[in-house]
C-alpha cells in the first residue's frame, strides 16, 4: 500500500520547518560540528587579522552555526560560506551547503550561479594562499603548481557536493512522482472496482427482473388456462362426461407444458451459475468485481439466448385460449418471416400475457388478435370487447399487477413502443411495435 500525499502531510512530526525529528537532530548536529570547526579556524584568522582570538572564535561559531538552517534557507548558507572563504574557514559548511542547494527545488540557474560563485571564490583564495606560501618559501615547486592546486582544490570542494545534490534531488523528485502515480493508480483501481461492483449489481438486478418476467409469463398463462378448464370441468363433470374428459386432458397438457418451460429456465440458470460460483483464492478486489460483472453479464446473455417461444407457435397459443371457451379472432397481415429470437419471444409473450389478462378480467369476452409484419418492424394488438354481463368476471385467478409492467419492459428493452388501456366500447386494448432488427 502506498502512502498518499495527505498521509505525508500528517506525518510531519518535527519542530519548526523540519518534517521529521531526526532531520532536526541531523541539522543541529551538523551545525554544531560546523560551528566548532569555524571556531577553531577563527583563531589563526584573528591572529592574521590582528584582532583578539576571542573575537575570531566568536565569529567562527556564529558563521558555522548558520548550517542549522540549511533546509530552510540553503541560499543563505551558501552565501555565508562564500563570504567566509577568504578567512579559510567553513569547509564543512560549504560542502553541506552546496549539496543542500543542489538537492533543493530551486531553479537550476540559481544553483548554477551560486555554485559558480563558490567555485570562483575558492579558486581565488586558494591561488592567493598557495602563491603566498611559495613566496615565503614554504613551498618549493614550479610555477605550474599554483594554478594546478587552485583548480584542483576549487573543483574538489565544489563539484562533488553539487553533483551529488543534483543526483539526490532528481532521485527524490522521481520517487515523489512514482508515489503520486502509484496513489493515482490505486485510486483508479478502487474506482474501477466500485464500477465493476455496480455493474455486477445492475446485471444481477436485470437477471432477477428477467427471471420474474419469464416466471410470470410461463406460470400465469398456463395456470390461468388450467384454472379455467378446471372450472369448466367441475361444471360439466356430471352433465357431459365426454367433455369433462376432454377438459381434463387439456388441463394435463397445460401442466406438462408449464413444467417443460420451467425446467428449461431452471436449466439455463444452473448452467449460467456454474462458472460464477467458483472462487479463486487471494483474488484482488478489482478482479472479483470484474469477474462478478462478467459472470452476471454472461448469465443475462445466456439466459436471453435460451430457446424460447416463437411466432410460429402463436396459432397454438390462440387455440389453447379458444379451447378454454374464449372467442378469439386471429388475423395476420404482411408476409411472415423470421426475426431475431428475442424479437419473436417478446412478441409471443406480449400476446400471451394479453390473453391471460382477458381470462382473468374479462372472461367470455370476444378477443381480437392482430399481427402485422412490416418492412422494418412487427406490430401486434390484442383487444377484447366488454365481457357479457351474465358471465363471471373472474374465475378466481389472482392478479399481481405485473403483467403490463413486464410487457412494457420487454418491448422497451428492444427499442419498441408499448401502449395499453381501456377502449371507448368498454373493453381493453394492448398494442406493441417492435423493431425487426
UniProtKB/TrEMBL annotation:
It catalyses: ATP + protein L-histidine = ADP + protein N-phospho-L-histidine. It comes from the Bacteria. Its EC number is 2.7.13.3. The chain crosses the membrane at residues 49-69, 75-98, 110-128, 148-170. Keywords: ATP-binding, Coiled coil, Kinase, Membrane, Nucleotide-binding, Phosphoprotein, Transferase, Transmembrane, Transmembrane helix, Two-component regulatory system. GO terms for molecular function: kinase activity. Residues 207-272 form the Signal transduction histidine kinase subgroup 3 dimerisation and phosphoacceptor domain. Residues 168-206 form a coiled coil. CDD domains: HATPase_UhpB-NarQ-NarX-like. SUPFAM superfamilies: ATPase domain of HSP90 chaperone/DNA topoisomerase II/histidine kinase. PANTHER family: NITRATE/NITRITE SENSOR PROTEIN NARX-RELATED, NITRATE_NITRITE SENSOR PROTEIN NARQ. This is histidine kinase. It comes from Streptomyces bullii.
